[in-house]
Amino acid sequence: MLRSLSGRFLILTILFVMLAEIMILVPSVARFRQDYLLSRLERAQIASLALLANDMIDADVEEELLRNAEVFNVVLRRDEARQLMLASPVPGPVARTFDLRDAGPWVLMRDAILRLADPEPRVIRVFGNPVREAGLLIEITMGTSALRTAMIDYGWRILGLSFVISAITSVFLFLAVRALLVRPIKRVIEQMQSYAAMPEDARRIIEPTAGITELREAEQALKSLETELTGALRQKDRLAQLGGAVAKISHDLRNILTSAQLFVDRIEKSEDPTVRRLAPKLVNSITRAVNLCESTLAFGRAEEPAPRLTIVHLAELAGDVIDGERLAVGDADVSFSEDIPATLTVRADAEQLHRVLLNLVRNARQAVVATGRPGEISVAADEDEKAWRIWVTDTGPGLPPKARENLFTPFHGGTRRGGAGLGLAISAELIRGHGGQLLLERTGDEGTRFRIELPKTVVAMDEAAE
């Protein structure tokens, strides 16, 4: 029960009500003390009036009057003259004097606390106004033992009554909270559990019914979220089914195109001028189709594995990539350069980083060759306290506007004619797996530059991944 919302609310209610009653206890006891002293003044005045009515009261009657008034002596001032009306032996000296005629609330509370804190019996003198203006001033001398006992008894009765009130109040608040808050919250939780069991079932989407404004707003937000999630899951299923179908079609189509490619190789040997002129175009078309099928199959396979981070000598890795691309240049006038410190090492998956650099350098080489003009491709790198940075720059014609809009989107961000747009998408995914980013820094008539950022800290990796 203590771990439930309603149970904790019940306990807190009892504690707060008791705290409020305790805060009221001190003024209540101070008021009780004032009433107690005023009642003794009134009894003493009545006893003194009895003496005024009959001057011949003997000692026994006087003692009985003082005992009934619970005082030691009574002084009444009438017509500016003080007169000792009743008197008896006082057990000790007067410890303190209290004037009830002009005592404020703070003074009364202070005196009440001091009386409760002092268990020793004392003799006190009390001044007050006579009842019904029967004189100018009445003064009594009395003991504090009975007063303190009465104050303690009154305080315990107040505490007991406070506990009963707090218990009853807490029970009613407990039932109210359980009906108005706990049950609607439990209903929302049960609905969320039901939806989580089968989120594709639109019948399990919550329907807002709460009467409380805040809960109803929460239910409406939950309904919107569940609706969007159900639609996204359905779309995901359709895309998964479509992807499976595309993969099967691409697999079969690749086999067909491979056979066609073999036939085209034989056609190229024909002596017919027209056939010899058209055969290269047919070969290029079939080659692009085969590459598209292979890229689609590669992208449709399982996600890339998590990178196996090791210390990689970046200069050696970039050199391997550039050496391979130099062989592919052929007769084109394309130069390569490196600006990487020989001692620079990065923490990365060597195979995955090689694939990313190879894709960027190959794209740059194809862009430069396509212009038919001399060009240059450079790979540079540096580091600071936060990250390693790698730049791949070319002097090609820049990316077309359509490619820039969907640069890292599969099948939409192709940078060259006939490309599938998967190379950059896969490269960006591999770099994100390292917690880094693949960014297009600039592109235009002067060329294109990509930047790879690999963070050195876990926090930076998390931020970059987000």
Automatic annotation (TrEMBL):
<keyword id="KW-0418">Kinase</keyword>
<dbReference type="InterPro" id="IPR005467">
    <property type="entry name" value="His_kinase_dom"/>
</dbReference>
<dbReference type="InterPro" id="IPR004358">
    <property type="entry name" value="Sig_transdc_His_kin-like_C"/>
</dbReference>
<dbReference type="GO" id="GO:0005524">
    <property type="term" value="F:ATP binding"/>
</dbReference>
<dbReference type="Pfam" id="PF00512">
    <property type="entry name" value="HisKA"/>
</dbReference>
<keyword id="KW-0175">Coiled coil</keyword>
<dbReference type="InterPro" id="IPR003594">
    <property type="entry name" value="HATPase_dom"/>
</dbReference>
<dbReference type="InterPro" id="IPR036097">
    <property type="entry name" value="HisK_dim/P_sf"/>
</dbReference>
<keyword id="KW-0902">Two-component regulatory system</keyword>
<protein>
    <recommendedName>
        <fullName>histidine kinase</fullName>
        <ecNumber>2.7.13.3</ecNumber>
    </recommendedName>
</protein>
<keyword id="KW-1133">Transmembrane helix</keyword>
<dbReference type="Pfam" id="PF02518">
    <property type="entry name" value="HATPase_c"/>
</dbReference>
<feature type="transmembrane region" description="Helical">
    <location>
        <begin position="9"/>
        <end position="30"/>
    </location>
</feature>
<keyword id="KW-0812">Transmembrane</keyword>
<feature type="domain" description="Histidine kinase">
    <location>
        <begin position="248"/>
        <end position="458"/>
    </location>
</feature>
<feature type="coiled-coil region">
    <location>
        <begin position="215"/>
        <end position="242"/>
    </location>
</feature>
<feature type="transmembrane region" description="Helical">
    <location>
        <begin position="154"/>
        <end position="177"/>
    </location>
</feature>
<dbReference type="GO" id="GO:0000155">
    <property type="term" value="F:phosphorelay sensor kinase activity"/>
</dbReference>
<keyword id="KW-0472">Membrane</keyword>
<keyword id="KW-0597">Phosphoprotein</keyword>
<keyword id="KW-0067">ATP-binding</keyword>
<dbReference type="InterPro" id="IPR003661">
    <property type="entry name" value="HisK_dim/P_dom"/>
</dbReference>
<keyword id="KW-0547">Nucleotide-binding</keyword>
<keyword id="KW-0808">Transferase</keyword>
<dbReference type="InterPro" id="IPR036890">
    <property type="entry name" value="HATPase_C_sf"/>
</dbReference>
